[in-house]
Amino acid sequence: MKEDILYHFNLNTGTLNFPAKFGDVKFVCVGGSPWRMKSFAEYIAGELGLAVPNAEYPNICESTDRYAMYKVGPVLSVSHGMGIPSISIMLHELIKLLYHARCTDVTIVRLGTSGGIGLHPGTVVITKQPMDATFLPRFEQVILGKSVVRSTELDGDLAEELLQCGKDLAEFDTVIANTMCTLDFYEGQARLDGAFCSYTEEDKQNYLAKAYAAGVRNIEMESSVFAAMCKLSNLRAAVVCVTLLDRQKGDQLSSSHDVLHSYQQRPQILVGHYIKKKLNASKKS
Amino acid sequence: MKEDILYHFNLNTGTLNFPAKFGDVKFVCVGGSPWRMKSFAEYIAGELGLAVPNAEYPNICESTDRYAMYKVGPVLSVSHGMGIPSISIMLHELIKLLYHARCTDVTIVRLGTSGGIGLHPGTVVITKQPMDATFLPRFEQVILGKSVVRSTELDGDLAEELLQCGKDLAEFDTVIANTMCTLDFYEGQARLDGAFCSYTEEDKQNYLAKAYAAGVRNIEMESSVFAAMCKLSNLRAAVVCVTLLDRQKGDQLSSSHDVLHSYQQRPQILVGHYIKKKLNASKKS
């Protein structure tokens, strides 16, 4: 029988039999696209030796098309759509799910793509701290009509462990840096190619230079609320995004489809290596 | 040959052959769910007498799973995901598409679901003006690190025409009222059932009562940026959302699946009637 877990119109996690189904979850990987999170589930099944030939991984949230969720052993792979509001709905429901399933010692990682600043395209950025569009390390939201500011602190040890995985693999550049999180992809990220643009190339470059000076090396659209909500829930959290272009050099992607595809694999290769390493270490101990 | 239109990583509308494919578009209907917008495309095909037995409507944006787009004669049906950032990416790209295709006299309607305030569930709300979470009729966004405030004015005549369609149909209650647009579904809408809640039922009721006093009768998550961007582009725009529950009475849906399904059809029935009426009138003139 199928159960709807992630659907903000009918979620009622308390009434479902979660401990049996989800109690063993130790790693949650989230990303924007349902298709990519299905692909991650297949990848991690292979990495962990849990792959079954011709297996179809069922989407646990199949009856909603708003999110997708796959479970492979101790790993959940969940899509979150685009932007802060979309990921925030998913995280509210995921955190309730983990609570009701009595999961302990859970590590959660957002895998994504981003625009880089001053990095070679294809560099993987492990976020030190998400910053808002004014380069402050905070997430501001409105609750009951009043502004509430939350910390976007992530787990520093986890970031260092992930950086070490990048060194183990030695397949691509991996750095720890600040990430700017915006509410808009075009004007909010100083792009010149949206439907509207009220500033010049020079204004754009000045803004990106200020971001660089604040330690920002990539820009995406979900990390701040992700960090804030994980911190409030005591989840060990990290953000791992590959840069697809250098925004100081342009606004549109210029790499070939194959090159972009290989870049997009990098966060999952890094995080897959991390999960395998942790599971092997826990078997030995 | 398939072309990617709505995908923020590879959009380049200027290079595609748009006039031939999209020049006849007069109505654009947008909604959160790709599944529902496919269903709307099928519905409007039937209403306009354009349905072909066993026809499959191709998703024009098939190679991205972030949005879906269907075209039925002069009507585009496009999904936008959840929340302001997600719909804003789609609208930037849609507005560029309409511009390059040299479309004129286009009407755009957002069809959606919402939480009601002081209305019977199932009431259809045609938005007078979207308001932010402090009940101001504005959309604030950050551009180059600075706050920019935009008007959320919608087309008053179009709202009245849609209200008249509700009267023509006489199948369900339809009202014109203000709509509150929030960045968060749980804490941002004073829900008590999210992963976190730092306020009481009384605080929630006080907040909803203030919204009611400001003329707000429903709450959703996309209308403010939709109104602002359509106004900047001179698109005739309306927001038509059904209320699925009365938020003063609860936070979770209590109606049966069948009842909710019938509520969800109402915006498309109303807008389908409007489109048919306009097309018939233009044939006669």
Topology, element by element:
Two copies of one chain form a homodimer.
Chain A: H1 18-22, E1 27-31, H2 34-47, E2 69-72, E3 75-79, H3 84-100, E4 107-116, E5 124-131, E6 138-143, E7 146-151, H4 156-169, E8 174-181, H5 201-213, E9 216-220, H6 223-232, E10 236-246, H7 257-284
Parallel strand pairs in A: 1-3, 1-4, 4-10, 5-8, 8-9
Antiparallel strand pairs in A: 2-3, 4-9, 5-10, 6-7
Helix pairs in contact in A: 2-7, 3-6, 4-7
Provide the succession of SSEs of chain A.
HEHEEHEEEEHEHEHEH
Strand ordering within the main sheet of chain A: 4-9-8-5-10
Q: Give unreliable regions of chain A as ranges.
A: 1-16
Work out the largest interface and the residue count of each chain: A-B, 60 and 60 residues
Count of helical stretches of chain A: 7
Oligomer state of the chains in this structure: homodimer
Cα-to-Cα separation, first versus last residue of chain A: 37 Å
| Main β-sheet description of chain A | 5 strands, mixed, barrel
Beta percentage of chain A is 15-25%
Mean pLDDT over the full residue set of chain A: 91
The secondary structure category of chain A is: alpha/beta
Portion in helices of chain A? 25-40%
Features:
two-stranded antiparallel ribbon; 7 helices; 5-stranded mixed beta barrel; homodimer; 10 strands; 285 residues; alpha/beta; 35% helix; disordered N terminus
